[in-house]
Amino acid sequence: MTRASLDKQPHEVASMFDGVAERYDLTNDVLSLGQDRRWRKEVAKAVDARPAQKVLDLAAGTGTSSMPFARAGAYVVPCDFSQGMLRVGKRNNAWLPYTAGDATRLPFRDDVFDAVTISFGLRNVQDTDAALREMHRVTRPGGRIVICEFSHPTWAPFRTVYTEYLMRALPPVARSVSSNPDAYVYLAESIRDWPDQPALAGRLKGAGWSKVAWRNLTGGVVALHRGFKES
């Protein structure tokens, strides 16, 4: 399996990410023109992890996204359903408690985490609403969710240019740096198919999250959504 389809069968998505694990972080850096580093800094600010807090980092991949929370003194659990990603992460940072898990059936008790976050991974889950409900379940009352995901640029001319980049320029660039360039065809298609900012906010509310808001990054190429679990 070199790439998943848009019906997002879990075994297909996991296999696809297994295939890109070795060069995943490098490829993301190249394809985003370095913007992924800025986006991750904004995620860290939004999560605002504190010492002794428990943070669940879903779709953590190799654990790159988990490091800012660990540096802040939080107990962070990097969780992903790609065994290949987890193996690469464990090799690089063996001290992190990497955990295999499906976002729609999380292997954690109710009301455990102070914050749950997922960056560039919710789009790859087959049942978005089930995942949002599961994240709500494992978050303690008063805790928070932060989602960083590709979204829809707000300025129409830029949106047109961006869509052209996704569908035409991204796959050739991926061929030069990725171990599985076909996976990045899926990436482009899944971004184009993803709901816009207000639609995702509505789904968060439907899953039980309150005080839902979002902030656009890079003109809406990426959006940060945040919500809270009522006490």
Global shape: globular
Biggest pleated sheet: 7 strands, mixed
The tally of helices reads 9
Distance between the termini: 44 Å
Class by SSE composition: alpha/beta
Strand order in the sheet with the most strands = 3-2-1-4-5-7-6
Low-confidence stretches: none
**Helix percentage range:** 40-55%
Report the C-alpha radius of gyration, rounded: 17 Å
Quantity of strands, as a count = 7
Mean pLDDT: 87
Element pattern in H and E: HHHEHEHEEHEHHHEE
How large is the share of residues in beta strands? 15-25%
What does this protein look like?
With 231 residues, the protein is α/β, with parallel strands linked by helices. It is 44% helix and 20% strand. It is built from nine helices and seven strands. It has a seven-stranded mixed β-sheet, sandwiched between helices. Helix 6 links the parallel strand 4 and strand 5 (139-150). Helix 2 packs antiparallel against helix 7 (156-177). The chain is globular. The model has no long low-confidence stretch (mean pLDDT 87). Its EC number is 2.1.1.163. Methyltransferase required for the conversion of demethylmenaquinol (DMKH2) to menaquinol (MKH2). It catalyses: a 2-demethylmenaquinol + S-adenosyl-L-methionine = a menaquinol + S-adenosyl-L-homocysteine + H(+).
